[in-house]
Amino acid sequence: MGIAAYLARRGRGSPDAKLCRTPAETGTNDKMKLLVYNNLDSGVFCVFAADSTDFTAKPGNLCHPWLKIPLLHGQNDFRQTPAIKTRAGHQTPPLALFSTERYAMTENLHVVVHYAELGLKGKNRPFFERQLAKNIRAVLTELGPVQTKRFWGRLLVTIPASTPFAEVRKRLQPLFGMAYFAPVRVVSQAWDDIQEAVLEQARLLLDPDTSFRVKAHRGDKRFPLISPEIGRQLGAAIVAMTGSPVDLQSPAVTIYVNIQVEHAYIFAEKIPGAGGLPVGVTGRVMGLLSGGIDSPVAAHLMLKRGCKVDFVHFHALRSAEEAANSKIVELARHVITPQGIPAQVHLVPYHPFQMRLLTNESRYELVIFRRFMARVAQDLARQHHAQAIVTGDNLGQVASQTLENLVAVEEAVEMPIFRPLLCFDKQEIIGLAQQLGTFDLSVQPYKDCCSIVDRHPATRVRADQLTEIESAIDFPQLIADSLAETTTVRV
Ligand code: ATP
Ligand code: MG
């Protein structure tokens, strides 16, 4: 019987099974060849081992190290063997070699994504789901062709199996909008298939000392067994195979079986997601980014609530080019890239402001500059369809951040200014920056323009004095001049 006919007889899909790896790619030595056939989207595959001298697949060479399909002619049962011997006595690498990258041998790697708050969003839900799917594709696209589709109230992500799962995990973990995700085996609803997939997980994860439970969910109520019964039967099959103890309360390993219309999916590892909402679902804001610790964290928190964030930075560097190569752009990139949505960084030179500000009241400089930054940010926000300004301000942290000063800045613009860090302690913000990975970059030396203005700013500004000083400045012209010299970088 040929390979294709064998696969067809197993009832696992198209008889024209596809060769998905060349022998060289399987990593075997030249004495031994492996042909790996993937026969389905379900990821079921067969391995045919043969000696290089006799490369025709023979029934005796047929094996299935992952699903342990009993051999066709029954000469051998690879269930017990750590490696596969060919007729000439060459051995395949031990099966563990395949198991190190657990999903590597299926043609497709499937990941099920459970939304964080999406379930709560009623009519907006399809829009939120589409955005999450788009963001997932964006962060994974470098790894190969990615597909996403809705899958019983979840998202199913399909990626070529050649992708190392560790890389997928690294990219999905920081992406907002997910409660958790799990690499899954998708199989048919046939009991044999479900059991094979469950036993496969058990074989990989359990030994006689590791406790486990099977948690079944029957989404398709037509399935003949009720959930507890599914759990019981599969649990018994695992005990018979591995001898592992069952523990329903606090097992070391839980194997999840979710039976849905047409398919079942099986997984054993729930990887926590970053929570929040997918970036792009709640609107767009303009973040004031300094080189310090706070503002990148503030932008990150807005991203977490689903906002797209663009940035404005005021620099006192010699040229736009120097600004574009500064750590500011790097900081913005670090915050933005994990979300898969590009952003713009507007680099505004400080010198037009510096030249206009002619006052003896240097204690007011900082507040006037802050008000100016807010005005420019508001203009840029309007140009780029952003609805609010975001800063890393924190109440009382430094002399410039008194309640009076924050209010004075607020009064310079019509647009709302959001301050997600207003009520955090400095230590908490440092903790967040460390988690986010921006802390080290933030503390690197940088010539911030706020260090040029007076270091002893007024903590209480008088509105009449402010108005008097500002009335000497032609703000519309100053803003226009500043924007004319602004450079925009995409990250
Ligand atoms: P950060 O760590 O974010 O710099 P900070 O504690 O040093 O905050 P300030 O320097 O007083 O506080 O700045 C308060 C906020 O004003 C910053 O979080 C940022 O949003 C904005 N800001 C300050 N300087 C600049 C700048 N040069 N360009 C753009 N925004 C700035
Ligand atoms: Mg600062």
Key traits:
binds magnesium ion, alpha/beta, 3 domains, VC0802-like, Rossmann fold, eight-stranded mixed β-sheet, 33% helix
Explain the overall architecture:
This protein is an alpha/beta fold and 491 residues long. The chain has 3 domains: 3-99, no CATH class; 108-274, VC0802-like, CATH 3.30.2130.30; 283-490, Rossmann fold, CATH 3.40.50. Helix content is 33%, strand content 21%. It is built from 17 helices and 18 strands. It has helices at 3-9, 23-26, 95-99, 125-140, 165-172, 191-205, 227-242, 294-304, 320-324, 327-336, 351-356, 365-383, 403-410, 426-436, 439-442, 463-471, 475-484, and strands spanning 18-21, 32-38, 45-51, 62-63, 108-115, 147-151, 154-160, 178-188, 212-218, 253-259, 263-267, 271-275, 283-288, 307-315, 344-349, 388-390, 417-418, 487-490. Strands 5, 6, 7, 8, 9, 10, 11 and 12 form an 8-stranded mixed β-sheet that branches. Strand 10 and strand 11 form a beta hairpin. Helix 12 packs across helix 17 (475-484). The chain is elongated and about 85 Å long. The two termini are 56 Å apart. The model is unreliable at 1-88 and 91-106 (pLDDT under 50). Magnesium ion is lined by residues 290, 292, 448, 450. Adenosine-5'-triphosphate binds next to helix 8 and strand 14.
Mean pLDDT: 79
Over all CA atoms, what is the radius of gyration?
30 Å
Name the CATH superfamily classification of the largest domain.
HUPs
The share of residues in extended strands comes to 15-25%
Segments where pLDDT lies below 50 for 5+ residues? Answer: 1-88, 91-106
Dominant shape: elongated
The small molecules bound here are: adenosine-5'-triphosphate, magnesium ion
Q: What summary fits the major beta sheet?
A: 8 strands, mixed
CATH level 1 name of the largest domain: Alpha Beta
| Separation of the first and last Cα atoms | 56 Å
Integer tally of domains:
3
Q: Count of DSSP E strands?
A: 18
| Number of alpha- plus pi-helical segments | 17
